[in-house]
Amino acid sequence: SGVTEYAVSNSLNDYLCYQIRSDGCLTTVCEGDEQSSSWNSWAGKSFKTLDIKEYTEDFIFRSLLSRKPQDIEAGTYPVILSRFAVSTLLQYMMWLALSGKTFEEGTSAFSGKLNSQVFDPQFNLSDDPIVSTDFPQIFDAYGEEKKKLSVIEKGVLKNVSYNHYYANRFQKPSTASEVFGSGSGFTHLKLHAGKKSFQELIQETEKAILVTRFWYVNASNPRSLTFTGVTKDGTFLIENGKIAKPIRKLRFTESLLKAFSKVDAISKDAAWVPETSFYEGRYLFAYWCPAIKLSEFHFSS
User: Fold this and answer.
1) pLDDT tens by residue, 133-149
2) HEC states along the chain?
3) What is the pTM of this model?
């Protein structure tokens, strides 16, 4: 837990200071004797807002269910990705494809695709740094006022991020996206929720793989938004609307341009998934993520 205060002072006579508020972060990890593992993470304005009963029951349920995982053949499967897995993919996509620098230099998978269909029409993404988050940010690290911004509407790319420097360099409007200590990017991405509950996504599924989260993700081809990584802390086979069995870790190799172009459904259950890896100072931000069901997702091994 802690308190974060942002301050900006520059030669333009900007003198800005904003104390965010106290906040709390909790991450729980467990590895059992029968190759089981579980993971849960939460962050909010205060630990008083944490539903510890729900948090713990969810954690224990996944830990017990993941015991004695079994092998499954590699291949392409429908998947249901939990909000934790979705958050990881959004974060990598943000840095590699939604940056004004990579977009303008032609290295982004979205270069030249502004106002074009890039994902399934069910996919709606915005950056909402002030109103609807427990971790608001009033101004960016350059001192420019933050505003809500539509990023992808019904699968159509509407905006990428520009900080003050790249806005001037490429003659584009700034999106106030200078990140404290981390360059330029969106810090409060919000994937808009759907109409079905997470349980309904499972119950309506004949066969799919349920992924709790991804680990050790790397880009293998940024131009096609292809990533590789492994599943972790609860990977399950769904059959006939139920979790049939736990399965061993799988390596995925998939293009998000392909995967997010075939969205079956998005859950109405959603929450802020915090990024709490404070490698360079304490800078807390989060992405609003529901679970998402995709028609195809490739597991290479």
Assistant:
1) 677 888 888 889 998 99
2) CEEEEEEEECCCCCEEEEEEEEEEEEEEEEECCCCCEEEEEEEECCHHHCCHHHHHHHHHHHHHHCCCCECCCCEEEEEEECHHHHHHHHHHHHHHHCEHHHHHHCCCCCCCCCCCECCCCCCCEEECCCCCCCCCCCECCCCCECCCEEEEECCEECCCECCHHHHHHCCCCCCCCEECCCEECCCCEEECCCCECHHHHHHCCCEEEEEEEEEEEEEEEHHHCEEEEEEEEEEEEEECCEEEEEECCCEEEEEHHHHCCCEEEEEEEEEEEEECCCECECCCEEEEEEEEEEEEEEECC
3) 0.93
